[in-house]
Amino acid sequence: MGDVNNIGPSELGERLSDDDVFVLDVRPRENYHRRHIEGSYNAPVYGDLRQGDSTALDDHLDEIPEDADVVTVCKAGVVARKATSRLREEGYDAATLSGGFRGWRHYEDDTLLYRVASFLRTLVR
After folding, report:
1. What is the pLDDT of residues 80-96, one digit of tens each?
2. Which residues contact 100 (CB under 8 A, 6 or more apart)?
3. Among candidates 115, 120, 6, 114, which has minimal Cα distance to 70?
4. Could you tell me if residue 56 is inside a domain?
């Protein structure tokens, strides 16, 4: 799935219909309700993770299928990396959505910014 711990928005978009992908959104509940990735699960532990408490995620582990590829999402991708690390410690195959929900929004809306960034990524590979 993506590189070792990341997956890009377009790759996630292609895989969303797969039954083996579970999107875990750690943003606060109000942000999630405003807009989210269709079919994602909200575990509103953003504040706890940001402050370094990765065990806050443990209360939600029962909701995460053990046989799925888990993709963690936060606002910009930084805090979700902490969730990804915690999940990997617990034995999950987890990756972080590159650019977070902000990146997903640009991908989903097919903004000029996203198209230019995607083009530039192809040049540096």
Report:
1. 999 999 999 999 999 99
2. 73, 74, 75, 76, 77, 78, 80
3. 6
4. yes
| Cα–Cα distance measured from residue 55 to residue 48, given in angstroms and rounded to the nearest whole number | 9
How much is the pLDDT for 4? 58
Round the CA-based radius of gyration of the chain to a whole number and report it.
14
Residue 99: domain span: 6-124
Total count of domains within the chain = 1
pLDDT bin (cut points 50, 70, 90) of residue 118 is confident
CA 78 → CA 66, 96, 123, distances in Å?
23, 9, 24
